[in-house]
Design goal:
The protein is mainly alpha-helical. The protein has one domain: MetI-like fold (Orthogonal Bundle). The chain is 76% helix and 1% strand. It contains 13 helices and two strands. A two-stranded antiparallel ribbon has the order 1-2. β1 and β2 form a beta hairpin. The radius of gyration is 24 Å and the shape is elongated.
Length: 305
């Protein structure tokens, strides 16, 4: 029964991912095509080029004017592993992704894990430490990080680069951390006020045991959703961070593609971002469905001890 339910959940998530990615790629292509400046190539301003060369440049871009035909050609190429050709960088898109994607994935991994770890640790400390004003420092720190644009955070860590190492990873960490801290703190505070927590405290259990077994464990499935949110935040923040820190990753590539209105490259990056975000969200949803108690079952505080 559990296996069949899991299979249904997985198939539902796969269909959702496929439809969303296809629609996201089409919308991305439409926005780029209808955006101002599309079809303009700075090479046309080069006075050294002949009229024939300039006409060849215009003809090369003319085939992307029709959104429907471009997208169908793009999907047909995907079936054969062809992601298109970047006109601005004069290289196949697949080569660019192979070079830059691993660096961005590593930065996102460090940033997401660091942000989740710091946010959860401070949230747990805030709930466990009942002293007045215990949440002032974490709240101020998270508020400052939340109010600071990702570009400003990147500039700070770029300046501190010689002392801390990889600046982009630390910058992504501070972008993710305040969102995790605020959500985790609210969730843990709400759980800590449940009747079973009050009963556990009345029985004289230690504070750490109550925090782990009766507060964190029941809230863990809800906190699992932070993974998908964190990946989305980290990927969005990686664009200005990689540009400012001069990190040759996907974020910097997306910035250059947007400046050059490189339609094949932008659509590929859009599909990639949508795919990564949806996969992480779907894994979190599946984990949440597996960890959720069965219908009609209640949380048993004795089972957690």
């Amino acid at each position: 029964m559990l296996a069949s339910g899991l299979l249904i959940q997985v198939s539902r998530q796969v269909r959702r991912i496929a439809l969303t990615v296809l629609l996201g790629g089409l919308l991305g292509a439409t926005l780029v095509r209808l955006g101002p400046g599309f079809g303009v190539d700075e090479r046309e301003l080069d006075s050294r080029l002949s009229a024939e060369s300039q006409q060849a440049i215009r003809s090369q871009r003319a085939r992307d004017n029709n959104i429907a035909s471009f997208y169908f050609r793009y999907l047909a190429g995907l079936v054969h592993g062809d992601f298109g050709f970047s006109q601005s960088l004069n290289r196949p898109v697949s080569e660019l992704l192979k070079e830059r994607l691993p660096l961005t994935v590593v930065s996102l991994g460090y940033g997401v894990l660091g942000g989740i770890s710091i946010g959860l640790a401070l949230a747990l400390l805030t709930v466990w430490w009942h002293a007045p004003g215990a949440d002032i420092v974490p709240a101020v720190l998270s508020g400052l990080c939340l109010a600071s644009p990702a570009a400003v955070i990147a500039l700070v860590f770029l300046w501190l680069g010689p002392w801390i190492g990889e600046a982009s990873r630390w910058a992504i960490t501070l972008v993710v951390f305040p969102h995790v801290y605020r959500y985790a703190k609210n969730q843990l505070v709400a759980t800590s006020q449940s009747p079973h927590v009050v009963a556990a405290q009345a029985r004289g259990l230690s504070s750490w045991r109550v925090l782990w077994a009766h507060v964190f464990t029941p809230a863990a499935p809800q906190l699992a959703a932070l993974a998908g949110i964190s990946v989305s935040l980290a990927f969005g923040a990686s664009i200005p961070i990689e540009v400012i820190c001069d990190t040759p990753g996907i974020g910097q590539l997306a910035w250059r593609a947007a400046l050059d209105r490189d339609l094949p490259l932008l659509v590929t990056i859009t599909v990639l971002v949508a795919l990564m975000t949806l996969v992480v969200n779907s894994l979190a949803d599946i984990a949440l469905a597996l960890c959720a108690p069965s219908e009609g079952a209640a949380w048993n505080p004795r089972a957690a001890e």
